[in-house]
Amino acid sequence: MAFFISSDCTGCTACKSICPTGAISGEKKQQHAVSDAACIDCGACGHVCPAGAVTNPFGRTVPKIPKKQWVRPFFNLDLCMACGICVEACPANALDIALQKVKDLHPYPFLVQEAHCMGCGFCARACPVDAVTLKERNA
After folding, report:
1. pLDDT for the residue 67
2. In the CATH scheme, what is the code of domain 1-65?
3. Contact 3, 38 (CB under 8 A)
4. I want to staple 116 with a disulfide (CB 3.0 to 4.6 A). Which of 25, 66, 88, 94 is the partner?
C-alpha cells in the first residue's frame, strides 16, 4: 500500500521534491499522484505538504511537521556491530560509515547528510541489534 494525495493538493510540488524514490508525479498547480509501485511508505511527502493532502496507507492524514522537528537517527556505538545494514537501508543516502572511536579500527555509521534525512526510521528498523534510535534533533 502506498501513500495517497487527495484532491486538496494544490500542486505546490513540495512532496515531489522530497520523495527519495521519485514516486510522486504531477505538474505544478495540479493534483499530484503517488505510484504504488515506487512508494516506500517513508511518509516524507506528508510531512512537507502544506495543504494536508497526503494520507497514509490507512487513510489517515499525515500531519505537516517542520523539518527541524523531524526525528534523526542516533547510534549507540557500544551496541553497534558496524555491519552497515542501516546505511544500506537509508533511502535518502543520508548515512555513511567511517571510523568513529579512538583506537578502534571498526567503522561505525553516522548521519553524514542531515538535510537529506527524512526521519523515516528505516535505519532503526533494519538494525539487527537495536543500536539505532530515532530522536528529535535537540532531544
Report:
1. 87
2. 3.30.70.20
3. no
4. 94
